[in-house]
């Protein structure tokens, strides 16, 4: 009781005015007293702090200067209303620096001694406005986002459902509020719900949980769900909010990508398999090619060997025929002998052709360049051409450019081979009419001369369909012709290679049943240093040489070859001796001197190469030099080089006739 009495006593001691004044001065709101015209009469501290004017400045201002001047009518209306009672509104006030801020105003009209005043309590609501705007923004965001945002109780009863949810699931808000969330969960996924709620109850959040949901129309969609707990103001867990994103499209794209990736992977694997197959095919091909190359090489070697084997007896046959010809024979025998001679020379020709082809195929076909006189070559050819044509009653014409420099360097034998081949063809395929042989100069540079040879006939000609094949190997026009005309079908193929080696070409023009012209061009070196020895040598054909006292040693193991060669040497007027191998030759040379040795290569005991080497070694001391000429049945390229390499002076290939033997001997003695 005594405390109550004390309070009353204390109250009486207060000066209320002082209390109100302190309250107003220190209030957290702006408090202003206006005159009935709106002039500011009193302001508190908060007013000074907020508006940025000094108190004196504020006291000289009017309510309308604090407000938006453009909306002055509203301000007047509100002020008038305040005078006659009280008013509450929200508006904008302006500070001294021109910035504005939202305010909530409560104005009360008061009457003091018949004068009307307005007392305004003004609150800066910037912060409140800001958070309200934020909340409004968030709400609209939640409402309008593409994601489904669903609120639910811990039992799964749906409490909120935004537009995103309506769009994704097809249910309107009214259809689902109050319903269980399982309405959108397919049966097989219903455990999702219990699992998630369990986590939420443990205070966990679920992020990016992927699952399936069912739309109103029954369609299943892929979703990614993030679930957060909802608490009430007192912090009690009351539910959960789901943010659900439809990832069906993503999944589709993802699946497509995966499918594509798998497809590409499969393709890639296939490619690797193909590559491997190709590689192994390639290896097989390489192997096959290697084998083919090996086989080809073996074939070439076989051909060379065969030629050796056949040439040796051929040498014997031809030699003996030549010897037989000069014995006494009756007419029958003479005729048979001629036939035998022709056949064996033809056989030798075929043998030579096959040998050429084997050289071309093994890449060993090369020219042997020597000085020669083109005039002599052409004279001989035209002579042969005339004789052959007269036998077939064909007319012959020839034209040889007189301004050709005739002293040349080239492979005369190969040139001869090509010309004889196209001339023989012309004669062979022409039954009547004429053959025309022309040689003209195409161009000359410093030391080179290109000649064009052409052979024109009036024969059977070449069919269109055959024209492309004519230079291929073993090609003849057709079977009927093949029967009628002999030949191997190799001549032109070889000629083409020779032309190429001579930096020239070979080609033809032909009309069936009218005739053909074959052209052949070749390049030669001009031999300015005229070679007198060469001329003398060639002239040797017609000379009778004094061969008395010239001694020749023949080293040869083949009995028939010995007989033939000795007979030839006898006729040529040389003295000679013979031995069967290199060992015997070395013995012989100990007591005898010879002007020349004809040395076979393949012999028992000591072969031609080794024998020559030994002879040359001995000669280093004696400072002598005996001429050694190799006789070999091998005519593969390189034989000549090998002979020269071991110290031989020249080379003659078997079979040879007397003329050939004479020429090679004359070169040395
Ligand atoms: P071969 O004359 O030995 O058969 P070639 O290679 O020299 O071989 O000629 C190939 C083929 O070209 C001949 O068989 C022939 O059918 C044809 N031929 C060549 N020259 C003539 C020509 N002047 N007239 C008609 N056909 C020709």
From TrEMBL:
One of its GO terms (molecular function) is phosphorelay sensor kinase activity. Residues 250-305 form a coiled coil. The modification 4-aspartylphosphate is found at residue 600. Residues 305-526 form the Histidine kinase domain. It catalyses: ATP + protein L-histidine = ADP + protein N-phospho-L-histidine. Keywords: ATP-binding, Coiled coil, Kinase, Nucleotide-binding, Phosphoprotein, Transferase, Two-component regulatory system. Gene3D superfamilies: 1.10.287.130, 3.40.50.2300, Histidine kinase-like ATPase, C-terminal domain, PAS domain. Residues 16-86, 134-204 form the PAS domain. Residues 207-259 form the PAC domain. It comes from the Bacteria. SUPFAM superfamilies: ATPase domain of HSP90 chaperone/DNA topoisomerase II/histidine kinase (SSF55874), CheY-like (SSF52172), Homodimeric domain of signal transducing histidine kinase (SSF47384), PYP-like sensor domain (PAS domain) (SSF55785). Residues 551-669 form the Response regulatory domain. Its EC number is 2.7.13.3. The keyword Transferase applies. May play the central regulatory role in sporulation. It may be an element of the effector pathway responsible for the activation of sporulation genes in response to nutritional stress. Spo0A may act in concert with spo0H (a sigma factor) to control the expression of some genes that are critical to the sporulation process. At low DSF concentrations, interacts with RpfF. In the N-terminal section; belongs to the phytochrome family. This is Circadian input-output histidine kinase CikA. It comes from Clostridium beijerinckii (Clostridium MP).
């Amino acid at each position: 009781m005594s405390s109550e009495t004390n309070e009353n006593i204390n109250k009486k001691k207060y000066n209320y005015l002082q209390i109100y004044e302190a309250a107003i001065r220190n209030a957290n709101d702006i408090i202003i007293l206006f005159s009935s015209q709106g002039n500011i009469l009193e302001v508190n501290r908060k007013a000074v702090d907020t508006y940025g004017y000094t108190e004196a400045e504020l006291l000289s201002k009017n309510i309308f200067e604090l407000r938006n001047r453009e909306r002055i009518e509203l301000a007047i209306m509100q002020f008038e209303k305040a005078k006659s009672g009280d008013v509450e509104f929200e508006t904008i006030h302006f500070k001294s620096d021109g910035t504005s801020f939202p305010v909530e105003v409560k104005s009360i009209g008061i009457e003091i001694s018949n004068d009307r005043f307005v007392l305004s309590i003004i609150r800066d609501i910037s912060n409140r406005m800001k958070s309200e705007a934020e909340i409004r923004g968030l709400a609209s965001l939640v409402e309008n986002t593409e994601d489904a945002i669903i609120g639910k109780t811990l039992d799964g009863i749906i409490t909120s459902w935004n537009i995103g949810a309506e769009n994704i699931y097809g249910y309107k808000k009214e259809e689902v509020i109050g319903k269980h969330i399982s309405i959108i969960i397919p049966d097989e996924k219903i455990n999702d719900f219990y699992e998630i709620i369990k986590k939420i109850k443990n205070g966990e959040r679920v992020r990016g949980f992927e699952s399936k949901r069912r739309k109103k129309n029954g369609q299943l969609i892929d979703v990614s769900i993030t679930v957060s707990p909802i608490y009430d103001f007192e912090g009690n867990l009351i539910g959960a909010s789901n943010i659900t994103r439809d990832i069906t499209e993503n999944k589709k794209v993802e699946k497509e990508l995966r499918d594509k990736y798998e497809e590409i992977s499969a393709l890639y694997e296939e490619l690797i398999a193909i590559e491997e197959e190709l590689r192994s095919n390639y290896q097989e091909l390489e192997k096959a090619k290697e084998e083919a190359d090996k086989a080809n090489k073996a074939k070439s070697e076989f051909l060379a060997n065969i030629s050796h084997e056949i040439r040796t007896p051929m040498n014997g046959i031809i030699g003996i025929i030549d010897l037989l010809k000069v014995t006494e024979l009756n007419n029958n025998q003479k005729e048979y002998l001629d036939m035998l001679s022709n056949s064996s020379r033809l056989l030798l020709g075929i043998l030579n052709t096959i040998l050429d082809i084997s050289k071309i195929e093994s890449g060993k076909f090369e020219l042997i360049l020597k000085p020669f006189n083109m005039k002599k070559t052409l004279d001989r050819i035209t002579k042969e051409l005339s004789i052959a044509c007269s036998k077939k009653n064909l007319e012959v014409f020839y034209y040889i450019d007189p301004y050709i420099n005739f002293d040349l360097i080239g492979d005369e034998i190969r040139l001869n081979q090509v010309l004889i081949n196209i001339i023989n063809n012309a004669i062979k395929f022409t039954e009547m009419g004429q053959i025309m042989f022309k040689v003209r100069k195409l161009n000359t540079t410093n030391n080179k001369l290109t000649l064009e040879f052409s052979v024109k006939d009036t024969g059977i000609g070449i069919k269109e369909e055959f024209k492309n094949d004519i230079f291929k190997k073993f090609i003849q026009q057709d079977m009927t012709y093949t029967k009628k005309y002999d030949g191997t079908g190799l001549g032109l193929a070889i000629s083409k290679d020779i032309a190429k080696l001579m930096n020239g070409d070979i080609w033809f023009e032909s009309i069936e049943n009218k005739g053909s012209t074959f052209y052949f061009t070749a390049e030669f070196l001009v031999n300015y240093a005229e070679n007198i020895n060469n001329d003398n040598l060639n002239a040797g054909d017609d000379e009778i040489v004094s061969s008395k006292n010239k001694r020749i040693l023949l080293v040869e193991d083949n009995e028939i070859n010995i007989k033939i060669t000795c007979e030839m040497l006898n006729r040529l007027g040389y003295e000679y001796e013979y031995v069967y191998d290199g060992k015997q030759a070395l013995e012989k040379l100990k007591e005898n001197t010879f002007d020349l040795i004809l040395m076979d290569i393949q012999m028992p005991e000591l072969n031609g190469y080794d024998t020559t080497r030994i002879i040359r070694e001995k000669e280093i001391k004696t400072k002598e030099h005996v001429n050694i000429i190799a006789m070999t049945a091998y005519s593969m390229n390189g034989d000549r080089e090998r002979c020269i390499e071991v110290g031989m002076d020249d080379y003659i290939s078997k079979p040879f006739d007397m003329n050939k033997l004479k020429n090679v001997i004359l070169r040395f003695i």
